[in-house]
Amino acid sequence: MAAFRRWKEQRLARADESRKGSVDEAIAGLVQLLNGQERFCTTSSCAGRLLLAQAPARGFNGYEVQKKNCSWLMVMHQLCAKEDVMTALQKATGDTVFKFEPFILHVQCQELQDAQLLHSVAIDSGFRNSGITIGRRGKIMMAVRSTHCLEVPISHMGKLMVTEEYIDFLVQIANRKMEENMKRIDRFYNCLQLALKTELSMSNSPRETIQKTHSEYTHRRKRKPDKEPGVCTSSENKEESEIEDDPEANLNIFS
């Protein structure tokens, strides 16, 4: 416990190495809530974004964007308009891809049961691609992810390959995905607050009662109540999980 606390202090004292250099405003409260708990430490996050990425001179490999090798002609963490994309395309000289990337959050957890709690909250909130990994040295990571992405080639060697009408269509789809993304973030924040509050209220209860309560919350997603935006309820999202590989992990506990 003491070792985790020291590591967390060192981690949070580091400079933000992301391109933006700070936590996205839409999830600042969520990140603060997690880091305010001794057992959690966020390591990376993105609230979700719309971007126009340009590949290096050799082009995209099967039109999959390699973040380290591409340049961003446009990046927005809120809704965008067709004009935003068209303006960014004026700077294109190579192959470009228009993308929507949903919310993602990585949290290192002190104990496996802490990661399990976050995993339950994430699934209940609609982030069906979330998972827990345990590294070779015992590091426990919880990744909050979903699968409602969008990635479409737009231009080739600087030449626009689609019509403006189609770009407008893509922007509308991406904006709807961003709106749903923000609703899920709100649900995640509310579900997390509820879960932490429930644990706190049970902290003085007998151990058997606490375990029963945790078990009930963990399996609550099997129920099917009506879902409302920003309200902590079980998700009925049927997207298939596509868990990403974690080079630091050798064991995937939940997916």
From TrEMBL:
SUPFAM superfamilies: SSo0622-like. GO terms for biological process: methylation; tRNA processing. InterPro entries: tRNA_yW-synthesising, tRNA_yW-synthesising-like_sf. Residues 209-218 have a biased composition (Basic and acidic residues). The keyword Transport does not apply. The keyword Methyltransferase applies. Keywords: Methyltransferase, S-adenosyl-L-methionine, Transferase, tRNA processing. Residues 10-193 form the tRNA wybutosine-synthesizing protein domain. PANTHER family: TRNA WYBUTOSINE-SYNTHESIZING PROTEIN 3. This is tRNA wybutosine-synthesizing protein 3 homolog. It comes from Gopherus evgoodei.
